[in-house]
Amino acid sequence: MSIDISRVTKKFGDFVALDDVSVSIPTGQLTALLGPSGGGKSTLLRIIAGLESADSGTVTIEGTDATRLPPQKRNVGFVFQHYAVFKHMTVAKNVAFGLEIRKKPKPEVLRRVEELLDLVHLSQFSHRLPSQLSGGQRQRMALARALAVEPTVLLLDEPFGALDAKVRKELREWLRRLHDEVHVTTVFVTHDQEEALEVADEIVVINDGRIEQVGTPDQLYDEPANDFVMGFLGQVT
Ligand code: ADP
Ligand code: MG
């Protein structure tokens, strides 16, 4: 099973943001969408999420044609760089939110929130407000919140971009560890080569609205498909 993007084109006016993009993202993997700014990463992620619709082409999620499904029918979890957390709600309430709006029974909600806070090591902060957490802790809360509804796909757009280097590195490890625990199909956008190479099972390199290469970190290093990929990976500091 997989997420299959087939011949997706997206224009903003005359500008072609995605140009006949086809790519298959395998189930259960941690996949990075890597490329320079303006390359079309966020647009592709938003099309997978259903937050944006393609002009042509199809999106199939686990065998279901999702091309015309609204976001809430796609069972996707999101984490964005500036994730909208509910400032007036405790950490536990934030994590519970998606379950409560789905009218899950209270004991189930409590059990699941406890499990998730344990997973991201925030149990002792469950009664705090988001403003009483560090930036890194807040993004861990955002991860727990996104996972609460057991999404088929977890989508992250530059999730750690706003944080400083040390915290970013910590969170990468968190993401990898969480993924290894829950195995949810995960697609995360980054312009940071090092982040993609360190964390991802597979990397989709995207530039100028086209896919340059799809491969494991080793494959990208050993056999870059073209000068662009070689040059871009070469910028790792
Ligand atoms: P990335 O996430 O790789 O930096 P984006 O997918 O955000 O790139 O954007 C790709 C291109 O499409 C950019 O040139 C951006 O300016 C343009 N773009 C994205 N969203 C819109 C929009 N809503 N209206 C007009 N242009 C857009
Ligand atoms: Mg972006």
From TrEMBL:
Keyword Mitochondrion: no
Keywords: ATP-binding, Cell membrane, Membrane, Nucleotide-binding, Sulfate transport, Translocase, Transport
Species, as recorded: Nocardioides aestuarii
Domain ABC transporter stretches: 3-233
Source taxon at top rank: Bacteria
Entry protein name: Sulfate ABC transporter ATP-binding protein
GO MF annotation terms: ATP binding
